[in-house]
């Protein structure tokens, strides 16, 4: 039988620091990608709004 104290949950803590920092970097890159997508959508929405306003002039 394996350990019962829940050590599987904290298994990442036993990894070397370099592996943990790579994991953090992947999370940071994912957040950067998400921010880029959201910003791009916001810019296109703003351009569409301006174009719609210009056509009404």
Automatic annotation (TrEMBL):
Q: What is this protein called?
A: Uncharacterized protein
Q: What keywords are assigned to this protein? A: Membrane, Transmembrane, Transmembrane helix
Transmembrane segments annotated in the record for this chain: 29-51
């Amino acid at each position: 039988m394996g350990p019962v104290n829940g050590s599987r949950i904290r298994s990442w803590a036993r990894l070397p620091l370099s592996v943990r920092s790579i994991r953090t970097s992947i999370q940071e890159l994912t957040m950067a990608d998400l921010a880029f997508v959201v910003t791009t959508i916001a810019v296109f929405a703003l351009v569409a709004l301006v174009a719609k306003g210009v056509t009404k002039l």
